């Protein structure tokens, strides 16, 4: 049984806006402290060069990517998240390259980013306009890459783990693959695959998609 759609949307809206200051705590609780480790699994697939994060949230991954020399840029609609992420970046001494925008209409140049990253996104990530924009901003040569952390594998005390997994199900956070098959990416010249990753005790399912060059399409 799922919670009413309006209630789920309201909960996520508040979490990303007026209640954004609770986001890191909520994420830590529902993941048994594994949220940041799941997020950092993207580093196994990142390519050198400018990196765009969609829906950067409180900026934890932005800081990690800046420290790795990836020159990250972030977009998010929430002004509350923008304030939190800006403070975090400034506090660590990194430049603030954040803007408010929708993933379906990125105010960014064509053929620029080596990577586009999203961690635990909502359904916007599978919308045709989003996929088209991701393809547009990724570099063609060398091929840019989309990296999405879809869901983490819960590991924790048995009495609590089933309860948290139940919360994921009733809030409709376990349905990405059946609802949104990989062909949507192929329609926009992105060669996508599912990838299970287990590293240093953190396990998650990722979606990796590489931009297909025009030359490859002609062969």
Can you walk through the features of this model?
It is globular and about 45 Å long. The longest helix has 14 residues, at 79-92. It has one domain: Vaccinia Virus protein VP39 (Rossmann fold, 3-Layer(aba) Sandwich), CATH 3.40.50.150. It is α/β, with parallel strands linked by helices. The protein has helices spanning 5-16, 23-30, 35-39, 60-67, 79-92, 128-137, 161-170, 176-179, 183-186, 214-218, and strands at residues 51-54, 72-75, 98-99, 115-119, 145-152, 190-199, 202-211. It has a seven-stranded mixed sheet, sandwiched between helices. The model has no long low-confidence stretch (mean pLDDT 79).
User: How many strands appear in the DSSP assignment?
Assistant: 7
**Mind telling me the C-alpha Rg?**
17 Å
The CATH topology? Rossmann fold
CATH superfamily: Vaccinia Virus protein VP39
Q: What structural category arises from helix and sheet content?
A: alpha/beta
- Sheet having the most strands: 7 strands, mixed
Percentage of residues in helical conformation: 25-40%
Mean pLDDT: 79
User: What is the level 1 CATH name?
Assistant: Alpha Beta
Can you tell me the overall shape? globular
The fraction of residues assigned to DSSP E strands is 15-25%
Strand order of the largest sheet: 3-2-1-4-5-7-6
The helix/strand series, from N terminus to C terminus, equals HHHEHEHEEHEHHHEEH
What number of structural domains do the residues give? 1
The low-pLDDT segments are none
In CATH, the architecture is: 3-Layer(aba) Sandwich
Distance between the termini: 48 Å
- Tally of individual helices: 10
């Amino acid at each position: 049984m799922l919670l009413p759609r309006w209630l789920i949307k309201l909960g996520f809206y508040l979490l990303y806006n007026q209640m954004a200051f609770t986001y890191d705590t909520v994420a830590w609780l529902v993941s048994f402290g594994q949220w940041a480790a799941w997020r950092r699994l993207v580093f196994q697939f990142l390519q050198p060069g400018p990196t765009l994060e969609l829906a950067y949230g409180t900026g934890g991954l932005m800081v990690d990517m800046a420290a790795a020399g990836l020159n990250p840029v972030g977009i998010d609609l929430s002004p509350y998240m923008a304030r939190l992420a800006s403070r975090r970046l400034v506090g660590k001494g990194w430049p603030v390259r954040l803007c408010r925008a929708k993933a379906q209409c990125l105010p960014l140049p064509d053929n620029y980013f080596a990577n586009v990253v999203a961690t635990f996104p909502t359904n916007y990530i599978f919308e045709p306009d989003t996929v088209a924009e991701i393809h547009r901003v990724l570099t063609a040569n060398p091929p840019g890459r989309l990296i999405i952390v879809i869901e983490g594998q819960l590991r924790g005390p048995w009495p609590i783990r089933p309860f948290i997994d139940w919360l994921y199900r009733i809030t409709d956070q376990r349905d990405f693959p059946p609802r949104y098959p990989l062909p949507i990416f192929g329609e926009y010249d992105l060669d996508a695959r599912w990838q299970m990753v287990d590293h240093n005790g953190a396990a998650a399912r990722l979606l990796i998609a590489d931009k297909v060059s025009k030359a490859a399409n002609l062969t």
